[in-house]
């Protein structure tokens, strides 16, 4: 295995971990959606979203990620979480 192959293998492993982490995150989003549905809470909580953006952006920038990438990534993750929760609120599983 060449040095390049070793790095590519490491990236492949990290990609799998990222996917697993995202799947876990969305599972928690579904649980939150169930709680919101039971309690009659709106899916989108603007104050929570603003807090997430601020803290995660700051953390990501300190970790060396660009602000533009971080914001785009967070928006994608948030959109999927909202989709899942709205699916629950609509009587579907959101998947």
Number of domains: 1
| End-to-end CA span | 39 Å
* Mean pLDDT across residues: 93
Q: Assess the beta-strand content as a share of residues.
A: under 5%
Q: CATH homologous superfamily, by name?
A: Chorismate mutase
CATH secondary-structure class: Mainly Alpha
Please summarize what this structure is.
With 95 residues, the chain is mostly helical. It contains 3 helices and no strands.
Tell me what the structure shows:
This protein starts with a helix and ends in a 6-residue tail after the last helix. The longest helix has 37 residues, at 3-39. It has helices spanning 3-39, 46-62, 67-89. The protein has three helices and no strands. It is mainly α and 95 residues long. Helices cover 81% and strands 0% of the residues. The protein has one domain: Chorismate mutase (Chorismate Mutase Domain, subunit A), CATH 1.20.59.
Please render the helix and strand layout as text.
Layout: H1 3-39, H2 46-62, H3 67-89
Helix pairs in contact: 1-3, 2-3
Question: What are the defining features of this structure?
Answer:
3 helices, Chorismate Mutase Domain, subunit A, about 100 residues, mainly alpha
């Amino acid at each position: 295995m060449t040095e390049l192959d070793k790095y590519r293998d490491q990236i492949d492993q990290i990609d799998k971990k990222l996917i697993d982490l995202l799947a876990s995150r969305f599972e928690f989003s579904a649980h939150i959606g169930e709680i919101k549905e039971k309690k009659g809470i709106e899916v989108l909580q603007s104050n929570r979203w603003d807090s997430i953006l601020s803290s995660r952006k700051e953390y990501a920038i300190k970790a060396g990620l660009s602000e533009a990438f971080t914001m785009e990534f967070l928006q994608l993750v948030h959109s999927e979480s909202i989709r899942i929760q709205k699916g629950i609120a609509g009587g579907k599983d959101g998947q």
